[in-house]
Queue: 2 jobs
Job 1
Amino acid sequence: MSKIAILGFGTVGSGTVEVFYKNKAKAEKSTGGELEIKYILDLRDFPESPYTDKFIKDFEVIVNDPEVTVVAELIGGNTFAYDFVKRSLEAGKSVVTSNKELVATKGAELLKIAKEKNVNFFFEASVGGGIPIIRPLQLCLMSDEIISVAGILNGTTNYILTKMFKEGAEYKDVLAKAQELGYAERNPEADVSGDDSCRKICILASLVFGKHVYPEDVYTAGIKSITKEDAEYAENWGGVIKLIASTRKVNQRTEIIVSPFFVPDESQLSGVDDVYNAILVKSEAAGEVVFYGKGAGKYPSASAVLADILNAVKAGGNKNLIWEEEHPTDYIIDYKEQKHKFYLRSVRTDSIRIEKIFGHVETLTRSNMFEKEFAFITEEISFGELEEKISELNIINIIPVFDLN
Amino acid sequence: MSKIAILGFGTVGSGTVEVFYKNKAKAEKSTGGELEIKYILDLRDFPESPYTDKFIKDFEVIVNDPEVTVVAELIGGNTFAYDFVKRSLEAGKSVVTSNKELVATKGAELLKIAKEKNVNFFFEASVGGGIPIIRPLQLCLMSDEIISVAGILNGTTNYILTKMFKEGAEYKDVLAKAQELGYAERNPEADVSGDDSCRKICILASLVFGKHVYPEDVYTAGIKSITKEDAEYAENWGGVIKLIASTRKVNQRTEIIVSPFFVPDESQLSGVDDVYNAILVKSEAAGEVVFYGKGAGKYPSASAVLADILNAVKAGGNKNLIWEEEHPTDYIIDYKEQKHKFYLRSVRTDSIRIEKIFGHVETLTRSNMFEKEFAFITEEISFGELEEKISELNIINIIPVFDLN
């Protein structure tokens, strides 16, 4: 009999409990033994829940109960979660979590404890919701060399950009509608600032290249500055604007960025719309592989959490094949050295002045352009060079062009 | 020290050996022990190979060598392969294979032996080449209920259909070009007849629904009858023609088919072009997930084989969570009961006669239609009903419409 504790009875927590009981017979068959949820920890009361006898408010009961072998941390954030996860691991319990903030900021430390205690720390649901991505990448890593990972990792911003694009609407109007529909939170800051995508690409970069990359290492731009005019330029250019999080290995160092990108129509990522996520992995042997699906939601995340719980039950000792190392100084390439083509939209200028500064550029157009508005795509240059060149121009927006595919 | 035997030094076999030695250090780190390829079995001589000391011609040496714990069967076909795999498993060795014909026709039997002997029988490379699909599905199955699987599982036919579509070319011309480029074999029969896709969907159906489905259970139509006129009709209708292999659960029974389908542009599968494969999985909790990548090729397949080898080394006892059961009578739904909308192209007829037989239909057009040519999409009807209705018509082609998405 394996006994499980669920920390947090919010969307993912309640979904996990529901999916657990629905699939209990099958889960027991696959793990080869009885399974039970012994505790559900939440500060709130749920008098209507069929599981009232399982609710507790004191974490000490869980951490001191030797019967509990797997703890599922579904509280989120870094305050309670970090403390509870760390203490659970130290007490010799495996932990599974959907908490990307925790994994992105504390992953190396927690994985090290898991290894020392010969237990597991799994977090399939932290990236891509119900899309299996962490475990396939781990398997892939055993026998192949991963070159780059790029993805649309946040459903809320992808929904907003899709609507802006398809309906020619303004950012703030679409955001309001997304909030109304429940696709965006009342405080959407973590999504629209790119921070959520940043945490996820940190997890993927740490996993595939073996050294912990922290959110503060990453150049992160969100979608708030994107206008319907930018969308129109992108369309006329032959592409769309997507919030892309990407990382690649350059010799022994790592390039990493979160930013809106001009994505050409030919790219695998251009057709990923609405709340869907997609992750494009390039590796030496397997070539390009794309994983696509809903990146969030109660049941997709719950199914990933449950798969982790069952794997933890089955594992019998530490099976984490992942990073435990901090990265060395100079491991992250300064974003100023990153080279891209860039879309620039400027006002009070003209092609003669622009070409004098940039050399050859690709001029873009849209309907009803302002007088002296000039939008264009540069040749490939670094962020650093770009920043120097534009110092004397009136630039409204800058968006790099996606070229990993 | 784990010792491995490679059976067959063809494309996948030589790729596996090459990728093994390239990633040896990493593979040893992940499995936590030394690894060595002890034997390579092939009837041919490879005097130029750096591995000449490993080549043998006698399988008895391998099966009787207790040092060999993992055998990789990369011969293909069912003649030698079946015998060698069965005897290896019976001798208590784990087996990995890329051989879809073997798994589709003998999977249940071989899995049963693997279980009895507490070893593993892995076949990640048998479907989707380097796309991780078998193992993610297995994991998914532990905690979720799979409803349907549909995919473009054969790169050769997808290349041919893509070219026919994009270049308005005829089947036989594109096939000749594909053979020239090495995308189609000199004898392309297994691909163009749909048999290769059929084997793969049998493996997936057996895996996700837990009972062995055999190729002879499956209604299988290939692409040889597709013309550029059909492609033009599909385009005007708002879609493309793809060879789809699909299966879904209907109560306790299974519906399964391999056929060209009219696929609407909105489908996840419509944009999968050239030699790429994609597999669309629908499950209760995770919703829709798509796996996309190159479905064949030396290195993609080799990386999948190597991942299986390393998993077999690490497993420590039987870890197969898959079908071992034959399916009961009446488990496969007769294709005549399967319902679809259908595209039909007829000659020597007109809309009045067609509507008298079919009721309301969606009329399609193309440029330069023959006189009395009439192409249309029916309402949803079963194959059985359709066959009755068309008995007195002159039908040139029938293609079902994809509606799983």
Job 2
Amino acid sequence: MPSTLASIAELNCPLPYPAENAVLLGHGSGGKLSAELLNDVFLPALSNPALARLDDQAVVNVNQQRIAFTTDSFVVKPLFFPGGNIGSLAVHGTINDLAVGGATPLFLSAAFIVEEGYPIEDLRRIVLSMHEAAAAAGVQVVTGDTKVVERGKGDGVFITTTGIGIMPEGVEMCSDRARPGDKILLSGSIGDHGIAILAKREGIEFESAVESDSAALHTLTAAIVSCGSGVRCMRDPTRGGLSSALNEIATRSGVSMEIDERAIPVCEEVSGACELLGLDPLYVANEGKLIAIVEAESADKVLEAMRKHPLGAQAVVIGTVNSGSPSLVTMRTTLGTTRIVDMLSGDQLPRIC
Amino acid sequence: MPSTLASIAELNCPLPYPAENAVLLGHGSGGKLSAELLNDVFLPALSNPALARLDDQAVVNVNQQRIAFTTDSFVVKPLFFPGGNIGSLAVHGTINDLAVGGATPLFLSAAFIVEEGYPIEDLRRIVLSMHEAAAAAGVQVVTGDTKVVERGKGDGVFITTTGIGIMPEGVEMCSDRARPGDKILLSGSIGDHGIAILAKREGIEFESAVESDSAALHTLTAAIVSCGSGVRCMRDPTRGGLSSALNEIATRSGVSMEIDERAIPVCEEVSGACELLGLDPLYVANEGKLIAIVEAESADKVLEAMRKHPLGAQAVVIGTVNSGSPSLVTMRTTLGTTRIVDMLSGDQLPRIC
């Protein structure tokens, strides 16, 4: 455990290069620095309407067919962890990025960057996990690529998965559609993935094991989508956690949000680990949870649909969208006070996915 | 130059781990070891009809629409080289993998794995090059992702691009369609990209600079496809060079091939550098060339169409498909002898793309 605390403390240490001109670990956190890099480097150069939506997936038109398209690189460390490995995670993650946009995932590609010397047997286990995760979800990995880099120029295996899916007719999901009065729904407990990774990485043991929640959410999202047009948008709160996902939607929609700490499920072990390590579960990554912003009249119906699904059995309403200061997310704490829930700044847990 | 020769010689040195159980640089070469890894690890686990075609792209059905889908990771070193950089290369490479399947490229995704400390200004240049290459080719980068890994766990920037395109009605291209009597067409000189990278990496200077031939081939392939059904298949001979591309087609189609060394264009500087370094231009990577297998009656028409295009001005017939020993590729040399042209074994030039 000392090494964890040390590595967290190190984030405040001076860097061996001018930080303002260099890419930092925090630029990959999914929080404030990631947003800055996107706004400073990627959007000005690549800007186009599909990219500018800033959702987890693009929706493009191919001969009058609305196709959802998304990509993610996975650099999780360690490669094998309780509840999964980089292979299953890379399949679930990309399926989920399609699913939360309302799309039906169909096909995946997988590109591997392998470090010279990596055991072929471990690579085989990873690829088998990808197959199992894809088959269980009813999608196919149809194309791929493998590159090898010298020892010390990579870190075992990196995987980039890209997914295509189809947008059902009439379904419109976008993070700019939250409106005052909407309810904020969360499908289950937060922080499991991040704490499982951290525990494995640092050799921390719990009384009962914390497992990653890594799972494919597309049948849960299909159940939500089938509740009708009252569903404004969905997000899977991965890197940057629940707080970053809510802040992104609040900013894009120009609304404020208030959530209730008592309503947010956190497993006992996760809660304990967070307290011990000085982490806030609102910022810890999830890989099998989603939030849905739903107009008030549809909230009960959507909640019921979610609870009928094994991955949404613990679903709850955690807050409300308001018309106050645009992009402000606040939380009523268990103590009855109100605090601001900002985006993650820096990187609390690097390489979590 | 000594370091080049040394690094080539080192490939024969003992490795610090049991080579038969570990991923080697050669597994990323696009040659024999790549094929072994594909057959041993990826195909058994992931096997499905789209993947089993073993072309540079998958063709999948989305609501009766034939969509081409392809992915490639780029780990080229150095990141900037004469004639391009990793950004333009990542756009061209994926456009070309769609194009040689006969598809019209439409949209790209781009996923970045950046090493902590990499200069933001250089990242900006790379992203701008991607935009310029994409805009020039009429495709859009519509979705992306950025991850950051610690210093010493990556190497500057790795980029994975994935492309989707549309297959024109009636177009069928597959590497199993070569037939005895077909002609083998090559769009221009070989070896430019590999030698440009190697020269930059090793600080070798030529009288006139060798530039990478990196270019988007989709308008050239469209001109070829428009010649009709006599076009059996196309390939862009990247990693593993011309020899590996021909061997793949010969194996998949169960045919032999004979090419003529005198017909294969090689620039003077490339030829000189290869001689000096003990490299064979048949194994050196290209990023803006293609081969087309065409039935004999259509060869003149296709050749004419290629020569009208700036990227095919030097197009030539380099050989013939025969019915002899399946998968055997031979070459009549300038000396009048015949030699076997095998797939690349090992890795003559790692991290060329």
